[in-house]
Amino acid sequence: MAIHPFQLVVVFIAAFMILKSYEKYRLRIFRRWEVWTWGALWSIVIVFALFPDLLQQYTAAVFMFQRPLDALFALSLLVAFTGLNLIFGLFEQQRRDITQMTREIAIFNEKLDETGSSK
To answer: Which residues lie closer than 8 Å to 34 by C-beta, 6 or more apart?
Structure first.
């Protein structure tokens, strides 16, 4: 079984995405179930990239990349899912930042009202 360069690229991208998911968990951007979900998804991608023969009997035409266009299509899907993961993380962080800022403003306004009404 020979490993092709495309397989190595997929493995490196998937491993990078697993590490990014864990990093987001450590920064409290992702919850535990999100890390497990993304980790499982990217682990499956790694297994199918390294062992495409596992799927050969079921989906040989899709995963064997008999034409360069097939490989390009699969790579574009990988890039799209990676981008989706990164954008989702950014939106989640923005939502948390807005929530935190709203709480701080509410507390500040409450303190301002208390000091203004006591005079």
So the answer is: 21, 24, 25
